[in-house]
Automatic annotation (TrEMBL), chains A, B:
This is fumarylacetoacetase. Residues 129-420 form the Fumarylacetoacetase-like C-terminal domain. It comes from Asticcacaulis aquaticus. It comes from the Bacteria. One of its GO terms (molecular function) is fumarylacetoacetase activity. Residues 26-115 form the Fumarylacetoacetase N-terminal domain. Its EC number is 3.7.1.2. Pfam families: FAA_hydrolase, FAA_hydrolase_N. The keyword Calcium applies. Transmembrane segments: none annotated.
């Protein structure tokens, strides 16, 4: 429900928040930060971070500890109450300004940490254009497998190697086999790639054996982030039969550090639009009228690259692709209902990835595998450098932003990681 | 190294330990138990459990808290010191008997819990006969894929739904599609199966980006358990392309509750023997002379079934299959070296499964899928009942035991679970 907290006329006495592309007073994302001391919960407002522990006396309930797990386990009630109170104390004219000013840090002086202890990480495959593009590289006549339009395909990822934005990513070594060779070789991956995804943080969770109904699924969402599911395509091609990706993906996955709440994203909810008229209807456990009407998300997604040479020349990151989260064939609620329908339990702080969210055209590819047509067509950069896959020193930056006429823009901040050898 | 703690002549003043098929003084497995109160660390000795918290004053260091994670993170030193001290205080003639007697509980009065908080659960596929049997059902001419003999195939499982022995397992509902139908249907799985596996608990773990060398891999092992990786074959067949098993496996995995230490299993170490002469040699990161010489395990494995009708008639569980952990094509050290070679980090309490450990002949199948030849040949039980797959009310019991002339037998206790509708 869109309420006064989304009003574009709402201003903050934190000057940098007004017109901020990511963190205006209409966003108020939660995270875990530190300023040379103990990691603790905070809220982004403009170029500053509000220390919730220091400002605790102003609230009925704030997150405590070094993760958001316990607070988000309480569900939407406390989260929404926190948002309303944050708007009260941060809006222009608030009588609390003097107190709150003592609880602010410059974001540029702080480190952001993983916002949750992640129990399990699951990655889906709901970006239909990515599934078609990748499928076409392997099966030109039949890119989408028969199950794709009946259920949200997903698999279990590795929780231990999920890292916060800014952590360097080491190029993995592993076994690869050239198509024209009989035997594999060992060495560094030569086809290292990024994947542009949205991440979903789970709030309350469900008990083992108790599926989450599609009508209740949205209430499981604590918030959203960006997710770069780094992938070693050459390792993947050799290892993935018959049980799926393993070492090709478990060396690192990077998430953006701010948790963008469902409340902040309300203005960007749209009808689920990726299903076509003659597609099979979703089974009842995957269908609710409300979810079809507003379970989609209209967020601009972007991936940029900054090479070592570009940095040396003082060039800015180069935009490789722009896409949108409307290209999800299955909604977040459908992902949750499907994940739990057999009884699997989700726990607070679990992470779900959408899978790569590519658009239907050139310039909208969420991975280099797609942009380079399987490594055949190099991407040309402003320096004249070319890439089919990532080189050491390359920094990949993902961004997401909700933009809608009459509303403030709501950004996710950066999800960035540099490849090191 | 085999030392005096393995001496078959060693007796305990706990009478039930002497000649106990699972828990003689030569075993001394660790676990988390409760007796109507707070879960805490204990040691199985015969029919009793030693409360390590109550007996703490007798030790330099004991596990504390409600999991073994922190203690096992310390590595083999503290674990081996604990074993030596346990033998001192529990052996016949120990001067500590009077004190220790006040710290014992009847195991039958206690509940056993999960011994670890599990960060991540990975399941491998190293049982070569299982891989061949299952492969043959899908690809009669080419049961083993080309990568199988080059690397230990594995995938990420679900940590949240790993349960302790004794917890009922709810039959999952999900999408399935009959081979002769164009569209899937929704309902309870009709092809519910067990999988007979060994589980490996990780001790110290490694940092992200720092692979575990094959020579150091054995030191990562905190202990062993049995693992039943329950599988819904019909859900699996429809969902698993292209990213592997998901809902078919994530509704429950059962582990036996006692952690059998590497020290207790020393007498049952054998040469790695499942590789044949003309198989490809393991790559250097998977090969150490020591691991080839004694990285194998000679443990008898067994799966039994107790149906509701058998229980009603007072019949004992019926042995469905007997196998052995020698049928692992890759050793535990090779699994660990491979898992981390790309930089993936393991954490204390992580669980690795071996995959189903079937033997080469009939009567040695670690799953009903194999025993019933893909559901075509029913297994006949003593009651005259038949099974292709599991029915509601069926209780599946896994056991493992090391047996060797001149040594005490070392058992794992039960890994049991009952299917409920």
């Amino acid at each position: 429900m869109i309420d006064h907290t989304h009003d574009i006329a709402l201003k903050s006495w934190v000057e940098s928040a007004n017109g901020h592309p990511d963190f205006p007073i209409q966003n108020l994302p939660l995270g875990i930060f530190s300023a040379g001391d103990t990691p603790r919960p905070g809220v982004a407002i403009g170029d500053l971070i509000l220390d919730l522990t220091a400002a605790k006396a102003l609230f009925d309930l704030v997150p405590e500890g070094q993760t958001l797990n316990a607070f988000m386990a309480l569900g939407k009630g406390p989260r929404q109450a926190l948002r309303l109170r944050l708007v009260e104390i941060l809006r222009e004219g608030s009588p609390h300004r003097a107190v709150v000013e003592t609880c602010l840090h410059k974001a540029s002086d702080c480190i952001l940490h993983l916002p949750f202890h992640i129990g399990d990480y699951t990655d889906f495959y709901v970006g239909i254009h990515h599934a078609q593009n990748v499928g076409a590289l392997f099966r030109p006549d039949n890119p989408l497998l028969p199950n794709y339009r009946h259920l949200p395909i997903g698999y279990h990822g590795r929780a231990s190697s999920v890292v916060a934005s800014g952590v360097d990513v080491r190029r993995p070594h592993g076994q690869t086999k050239a198509p024209d060779s009989d035997t594999p070789v060992f060495g560094p991956s030569r086809r290292l790639d990024y994947e542009l995804e949205l991440g979903v943080w789970i709030g309350p969770g469900n008990d083992l054996g108790q599926p989450v109904d599609i009508y209740a699924a949205a209430d499981q969402v604590a918030g959203f982030c960006l997710l770069n599911d780094w992938s070693a395509r050459d390792i993947q091609a050799w290892e993935y039969q018959p049980l799926g990706p393993f070492l090709a993906k478990n060396f690192a996955s990077t998430v953006s550090s701010w948790v963008i709440t469902p409340e902040a994203l309300m203005p960007f909810r749209v009808a689920q639009a990726a299903r076509e008229a003659d597609d099979p209807p979703p089974m009842p456990y995957l269908w609710s009228e409300n979810d079809q009407a507003e379970g989609g998300l209209n967020l601009e997604l972007e991936v940029s690259l900054l090479t070592a040479q570009m940095r040396a020349q003082g060039l800015p990151p180069h935009k490789l692709a722009q896409s949108n989260s409307r290209h999800m064939y299955w909604t977040v609620a459908q992902m949750i209902a499907h994940h739990t329908v057999g009884g699997c339990n989700l726990r607070p702080g679990d992470l779900l990835g959408t899978g790569t969210l590519s658009g239907p055209e050139a310039g909208m590819h969420g991975s280099l595998l797609e942009a380079s047509h399987g490594g055949k067509v190099p991407v040309v950069l402003p320096t004249g450098e070319t890439r089919t896959f990532l080189q050491d020193g390359d920094k990949v930056i993902l961004r997401a932003r909700g933009m809608r006429d009459g509303f403030a823009s709501i950004g996710f901040g950066e999800c960035r990681g540099k490849v090191v050898g």
